[in-house]
């Protein structure tokens, strides 16, 4: 089965090898990376991996502000996407945690009944007090998240989607594919959630503008969850705020973004099942001296950038603010205050 992962990156160098190794373990056979404005060596590491046939790497073709959508439009022309049986659109801080069968994408597809698309619910993993950046697997460092059924008081949680080659595709979205609104019912795709259930009809048809990329998470994760490590360490979050959003211009990563994703109410260590194989796969990639050196250079650049940011008053103030921020989402804090239950 040919499965291609498509992603956009900017200054994600320290995290690339883990994400590639992990996705290869779960069945991804091809990678298409779009990079833009990298200053940490991400592009150099991707070029070296591409030279070895491990990934495809292109500059982001975007001319407007929505970098990801323009890249996804270009991706349809690329051979590694055109020849794929399935396409997986995700970011480097997102890990598909598969609970079915042998914990691979083919096992997930089989468990869901071989549909034409599968949309898997996010689970946002908290920083949970991890301050310092460490050059070791992200999936080994963060075990706590919000209640998987509720995020910031909302029962509907965002998804990312696997798309089969015969999906009646109009265009790829970052969270889900789209088909033409006038497509006859008999030609509409078979599309499931992460439990193999048909996705809600309004989601299928993109009929609710507020819910075109989300649906209720309860009962939707029997076979897979999408672990999203949007915060990582406090060090890395500061570097992320400096970098900005790789997918679209003028999006801020601030206190609200942090608090919405730093709810440690629930413990989930299930993804650690992959760690032994992941460690071996990482060691295999780093056995190549050039790949290892380029990875190490990205790590060093990440640390240098953190140090440079913390030499600035505003970033030291941000660091202190995030350390002091309550571990409740703003919406939950507001609810407790309205009920007179806030401390």
What's a quick, concise take on this entry?
The chain is an alpha/beta fold and 343 residues long.
Description:
Helices cover 34% and strands 18% of the residues. The chain contains 12 helices and 14 strands. The chain has helices spanning 13-25, 42-51, 67-75, 79-82, 105-111, 201-204, 234-243, 255-260, 275-286, 289-310, 313-324, 330-338; strands at residues 3-9, 30-35, 56-59, 86-89, 94-98, 117-124, 144-145, 156-164, 171-172, 177-178, 191-193, 214-216, 224-228, 266-267. The strands form 3 sheets. Strands 1, 2, 3, 4, 5, 6, 8, 11, 12 and 13 form a 10-stranded mixed beta sheet that branches. A two-stranded antiparallel ribbon has the order 7-14.
Task: Give the SSE layout.
Blueprint: E1 3-9, H1 13-25, E2 30-35, H2 42-51, E3 56-59, H3 67-75, H4 79-82, E4 86-89, E5 94-98, H5 105-111, E6 117-124, E7 144-145, E8 156-164, E9 171-172, E10 177-178, E11 191-193, H6 201-204, E12 214-216, E13 224-228, H7 234-243, H8 255-260, E14 266-267, H9 275-286, H10 289-310, H11 313-324, H12 330-338
Parallel strand pairs: 1-2, 1-4, 2-3, 6-11, 6-13
Antiparallel strand pairs: 4-8, 5-13, 6-8, 7-14, 8-12, 9-10
Feature tags:
single chain; 343 residues; alpha/beta; 10-stranded mixed β-sheet; two-stranded antiparallel sheet; 12 helices; 14 strands; 34% helix; 18% strand; globular
- Spatial shape: globular
> Overall pLDDT, averaged?
94
The CA-CA distance between the termini, in Å, is 54 Å
Q: Give a count of the beta strands, DSSP E runs of length 2 or more.
A: 14
Percent range for β-strand residues: 15-25%
Structural class: alpha/beta
Instruction: Specify Rg, calculated over alpha carbons.
Output: 20 Å
